[in-house]
Design brief:
Bound molecules: flavin-adenine dinucleotide, 2-acetamido-2-deoxy-beta-D-glucopyranose
Family: Belongs to the oxygen-dependent FAD-linked oxidoreductase family.
Organism: Apiospora aurea
InterPro entries: FAD-bd_PCMH, FAD-bd_PCMH-like_sf, FAD-bd_PCMH_sub2, FAD-linked_Oxidoreductase, Oxid_FAD_bind_N
Number of helices: 14
Strand order of the largest sheet: 12-9-11-10-14
Number of strands: 15
Structural class: alpha+beta
Keywords: FAD, Flavoprotein, Oxidoreductase, Signal
Protein name: FAD-binding domain-containing protein
Radius of gyration: 22 Å
Helix content: 25-40%
Oligomer: single chain
Order of helices and strands: HEHEEHEHHHEEHEEEHEEHHEHEHHEHE
């Protein structure tokens, strides 16, 4: 999965704020999402500075296509889905400020802040919270749609931890969205929250960090271990009973020429909030599958994303052309998984240029605290899923 932008735009990006001609939409975009010519287009720089600039905080940067920073400010993880017709990016200074931690029970996280910054800032202050897993994604984007991450087994989804959203509506008014203010919107924005308005900041519950290190164990298995691996993954996650500290395992069926030039390998990494001893006891079923290679170790929480390829600049964050789809599951059908591997392998052999980037990706999160939340309380619809693939 993923990519990176590095730490590009540290702020909200206003798409199509002004645009002249109506850029041709991607053919896959349904008509009702096409740009409509109801915003002013081709507005001169001086006018933008006068009208918009005067409303923004000191230090805010307005970036136009002719500016040196344009490529950086508009870089996309997936270059296949770049928005067209973008004419202006606004990087508000105040929205990229570091979070504050009022009173030690919650943190105020700015609308444009990246997960990596949230994790590092909280950890340094002695706290953790639920976020998405990948450092180069914003905090708010995933938190509006649920937000799967390594702390969800212990503390629930990122959206379950949000206690207030500061929102600017389309009419320019600002509202607070929480259980007492616009509570219907709060229900919707905890799981189906994109595009009701712009979230300028979110207040999220935080937790005192109780452990100093996370244990990781990465395995590479040959493809003939597929059946035993998926049977054990099914047992591991059965009925959502994965230990809550076993944050997540990410897996890839992938062609890795370092191991095998013709056949895929199974590359899996597990991350556990606690000691090596406790983790390895739980990982015994996987330790018993003979591996081509293994690595394990213990790192402070902010480093676990890098171990799992999801830190800024890492493989999960690279910007390039991507096409993909995903599915939520309760258990793996082992017969189907074999068919998927066979099809993947045959497709990679027929189109060798895909083999370097092609992957079947698996995510198995701990779900205890996610399932402890009554599904009627939020709009998040997938509490029953145990796996993502
Ligand atoms: C590399 C990568 C890794 C990922 N890893 C995870 C993961 O570990 N866990 C997980 O749950 N999901 C993950 N996802 C999926 C992710 O949750 C969604 O793609 C999410 O919408 C991305 O948020 P973003 O901040 O990048 O927002 P964008 O892609 O910029 O925006 C996504 C949507 O949210 C809206 N939006 C963004 N910010 C705001 C705001 N402040 N106010 C109002 N609306 C806003 C945008 O208008 C848009 O509709 C990942 C995605 C990628 C690309
Ligand atoms: C892009 O801009 C951000 C914010 O100004 C900066 O931190 C980052 O280094 C830039 N990246 C590149 C590749 O220029
Ligand atoms: C590659 O994988 C195939 C099938 O799993 C196996 O028969 C072959 O020995 C492997 N090659 C190497 C170099 O390990
Ligand atoms: C598992 O997948 C196989 C092959 O696609 C299918 O025939 C079978 O019915 C599936 N089993 C279940 C329990 O869904
Ligand atoms: C993978 O594809 C290669 C090349 O077509 C083939 O030799 C090999 O047998 C295939 N392996 C599997 C497990 O399908």
């Amino acid at each position: 999965m993923n990519t990176l932008f590095g730490r590009i735009a540290c702020g909200l990006v206003f798409l199509q704020f002004v645009g002249t001609s109506i850029a041709l939409p991607h053919p896959a975009v349904p008509e009702y999402f096409h740009n409509a010519p109801f915003t002013r287009r081709d507005v001169p720089v001086a006018q933008i500075q006068r009208e918009l600039g005067s409303l923004l905080s000191k230090g805010t940067v307005i970036i136009r296509p002719s500016d040196a920073g344009w490529a950086n400010a508009t870089e996309r993880w997936n270059t296949a889905t770049e928005p067209r017709g973008l004419e202006l990016v606004v990087r508000p200074a105040q929205e990229s400020d570091v979070s504050t931690i009022p009173g030690g029970k919650s943190a105020l996280i700015q609308g444009g802040q990246y997960i990596g910054d949230v994790v590092r800032t909280l950890w340094a202050a002695g706290y953790v919270t639920s976020t998405g897993s990948n450092n180069c994604v914003g905090f708010v984007g995933p938190a509006l749609g649920g937000g799967h991450g390594r702390y969800q087994g212990l503390h629930g989804l990122a959206s379950d931890n949000v206690i207030n959203l500061n929102v600017v509506l389309a009419d320019g008014s600002t509202i607070k969205v929480n259980k007492d203010s616009h509570s219907d919107l709060f229900w919707a924005m905890q799981g189906a929250g994109h595009n009701f308005g712009i979230v300028t900041s979110a207040e999220s519950k935080i937790y005192r960090r109780k452990i100093d290190t996370w244990h990781y164990h990465n395995y590479v298995w040959s493809q003939d271990k597929l059946e035993v691996l998926f049977e054990r993954l099914n047992a591991f996650h059965k009925d959502g009973k994965t230990p809550p500290e076993m944050g997540v395992e990410f897996g890839s069926v992938i062609i890795n020429p370092a191991f095998n030039t013709t056949d895929p390998v199974l590359s899996w990494n597990f991350a556990y909030a606690g000691s090596a001893k406790d983790a390895e006891k739980i990982l015994k079923p996987f330790n018993d599958i003979p591996a081509l290679s293994q690595q394990k170790g213990d790192v402070p929480y902010p480093e676990i994303a890098g171990i799992q390829g999801m830190a800024e600049g890492g493989p999960g964050c690279l910007s390039n052309l991507k096409a993909g789809t995903s599915v939520g599951l309760r258990s793996y059908n082992v017969t189907s998984q074999r068919q998927i591997l066979t099809l993947f392998n045959a497709t990679m052999a027929s189109y060798p240029s895909l083999a370097a980037g092609g992957v079947v990706f698996y995510e198995g999160y701990s779900t205890k605290a996610v399932q402890a939340v009554d599904p009627v309380l939020t709009a998040y619809p997938h509490r029953d899923d145990l796996h993502l693939a």
